[in-house]
Amino acid sequence: MVNKAAYAAMLDTGNFILADNRSNHIWESFMDPTDTLLPTQVMERGGLLSSRRRENSYDKGSFQLRLLPDGNLVLNPIALPTEKAYDAYYISDTYDTANDTNSGFRLVFNKSGYLYVVLRNGNIKNLPSGSNLSPREFYYRVTLDVDGVFTQYANPKSPTNGSNWVQSWSPIWFVPRDICSDMKGNLGGGVCGFNSYCTLQSTGRPDCKCLPGFSLLDQDDKFSGCKQDYVQTCDPNAPNPEELYDMKLESNLVWRTSANYEELQPSNEVDCRQSRLSDCNCVVAITYSGSCCKKKLPLSSGKVDIST
After folding, report:
1. Which of 57, 63, 11 is nearest to 38 (CA)?
2. DSSP letter for each residue of 21-67
3. For residue range 147-191, what is the model confidence (pLDDT) as tens digits?
4. Residues forming beta bridges with residue 63, ordered by sequence position
């Protein structure tokens, strides 16, 4: 028998509840989170948060925070619409293969703004946190943002709290610290989508860009990936093919997980340029460590790497 709701209430914690006439909770928002946890909220094994598609859209996005059955807290990109999880780009290391009592079973965001994983033996593993501010003076939340970064925010309850604070949500801690580098899986388009590349801003957040000759699939969504503005024709018998194409040079870009269809070695930048212009199948080529790598499309998990 399903109890009927007698009333609804928004609790001081931010938990919205439906209760029966005996004040038993039939449903509560804290047990069905979307992209955010509030202080006093917990997440059990098997629980998850899903990012939004865009800042102004509540459609499900491409990233999830999950407390796995093995006890690890992980961040994953996912395939939509199936939600298949790809390789994690953050792992809490709260899984003990030899002794399950040393593994996590609950994620807690406590009333003081600290975030930690509770282990089955009663110990806790604190996650790095920016919570050194009084909860009497600040509101807190943790959110899996649209860019895949898991962030703790604080908002002063009064505009006089702290000379450097304004009355708005400000990030005080986040993981991963460099999502452009930490996302290394072979599947999916990476942080920014296919045929794009990721740059890390001074704030620690990713920015997404398209190569010359490419543009965003969705001009309102910089994480949507990029498409070719013009798909070149290929006639291997055309005379002087190097005169048919132009080449733009970009520095320090890598797509390490994207497959090559040809790799020339040894090869320098001049040789690679000439080979690329003579190959009507080639759209992107990378020179790296004495090799010329011609890339298959679509490209995935591109990033700026100043070490190259």
Report:
1. 11
2. TT--EEEEGGGS-SSEE-TTEEEETT-EEEEEEETTEEEEEEEEEEE
3. 999 999 998 888 765 556 777 889 999 999 999 999 988 899 999
4. 77
